[in-house]
Amino acid sequence: NAGVTQTPKFRILKIGQSMTLQCTQDMNHNYMYWYRQDPGMGLKLIYYSVGAGITDKGEVPNGYNVSRSTTEDFPLRLELAAPSQTSVYFCASSYSESNSPLHFGNGTRLTVT
Amino acid sequence: AQKITQTQPGMFVQEKEAVTLDCTYDTSDPSYGLFWYKQPSSGEMIFLIYQGSYDQQNATEGRYSLNFQKARKSANLVISASQLGDSAMYFCAMREGKRDDKIIFGKGTRLHILP
User: For residues B84 and B82, what is the distance between their CA atoms, to the nearest angstrom?
Assistant: First the structure.
């Protein structure tokens, strides 16, 4: 049972480039989330999804896009990367019950230079 | 609007002592859940404990317990008999009821356990 898998683990982008952070989970969770964590800070919600075909903006959605075509996958797209997007990105998933905790991936460390 | 506040950026505690990490929250939804997570220096996020707004008793999980004071909107994490391995970042998070499925995190508290 792999849980939540994020790829890649590390990536360096040049300003203006684009990339997709991949996230897949094998726990049949309906809910999936993308967070970013800047150094020494908490997690900020970028986008989330409560099921296939449904996505919603979080606290800091600008500069990002998501899609949820299947229950398992929730990719995060960065268009026109900027230095301000240098961060660690975490994908997480959970069941829909209110007491269901988040299961996190191991994170993607992204540097934009 | 949903809001989580952790006012202690860092704490130093002697090994084997108990420690309380503060968390206050703000929500207008009567139904919500509060979570605590631990993030060691290795970076992974580890779920510790959950408290529901309608739970009659404070949550406990091993050495972790929640001091839940609903009227004051606080949900402080208590770690008993601290160990060196408890040194980590600790985050409080909240999920409001079915009206909003966002899960919002506080800024965290870095806990250092001293030998």
Answer: 7
Nearest to B33 among A48, A92, A99 (CB): A99
* Residue B43: C-alpha distances to residues A2, A79, A94, B53, B101 (Å): 18, 26, 19, 29, 25
Are A101 and B52 inside 8 Å of each other by CB? no
The one-digit pLDDT tens for each residue of chain B (115 residues) are: 569 999 999 999 999 999 999 999 998 888 899 999 999 999 999 999 999 999 999 999 999 999 999 999 999 999 999 999 999 999 999 998 665 688 999 999 999 999 9
Q: How far is CA A16 from CA A64, A78, A83, in A?
A: 13, 10, 9
Torsions phi, psi of A39, nearest 5?
A: -50, 125
The C-alpha angle with vertex B42 and arms to A99 and A100, in degrees rounded to 5, equals 5
Give the B-side interface with A, CB within 8 Å: 6, 31-33, 35, 37, 43-45, 47, 50, 52, 91, 93, 95, 97-98, 101-108
